[in-house]
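Z., the sequence and structure:
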Amino acid sequence: MCLHGGPGVANRHSVINDITDLFDDFTIVAWDQRGTAGSYWGVKAEQLTIKQLIEDANALVNYLCDHLKKEKIFILGGSWGSLLGTWLLHEYPEKIYAFVGFGQVVNIHKNELISWQYSLDEATKANDTKAIETLKRIGPPEMGCYKGDDLFDSMLLQRNIMMKYGGYSKEDGKQDYYHAIIKPVVLSGEYSLSDLIGYVKGYKFVLRSMWREVGTTDFEKTCTKFKAPIFIFDGRLDYNTPAVLVEHWFDMIEAPIKELHWFEKSGHNPLSDEPDKFKKLLKEKLLPLAKGETC
């Protein structure tokens, strides 16, 4: 089961396009989370909480186990999906073979400070006065939140500058958020018109509704003991959810199996940056667990 990022950025299109060669080994499930794309309609802001999304994810795990007649399933989560997946593994491990996180979230307060500082440092090196002025105007962020009239718009300004200077992916360093994230959704053909409207409305609505709560995330204090295996596949070059925060938290983790694998040429999404390595490792680590073997 794949947990998308954001919160609010559905990824059915990339799941279908990026990992079709895993279909012989896995049944792949992509889910539009509450408030997102096909699940946008009728959702109210007060329903968009971390606890509610954990409960939603657990309900889907139970449904899939029943529907597929499986005792357990695997969870794959990137970015916000790594945050949700970490909590899901912590709270409801019974029907999870293992969780794999990438673009792994650890501490949102530190996350945004590091990401903002990276953007400022790179803009300063490039003598990009417009970017420097923008970053100083909206930051430094406090508990993950940037200054400005609108939380989402201010974060988008920072993300665009961070992506411009390669903090998301060295391959796509010149792209902005729209061309890297939104355009592929519209052109994918995966979403109905209703889904697309829900996507455009939902990704802003969900983030605005949830981000202040998300900003309190600190897994070093809340999530270090797990009853099921946890794997982190992280891009060493990631400054969207900075890789520098991962190792210390990982060292604190207690789990039946825990492994941290670095992708030296990857940024925020190693599945996209180093797909062959990512999928090979995924099969090597997960398939033995499904067969009752150890890694």
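The mean pLDDT is 94. DSSP finds twelve helices and five strands in the chain.

Let me know what you think.
H.
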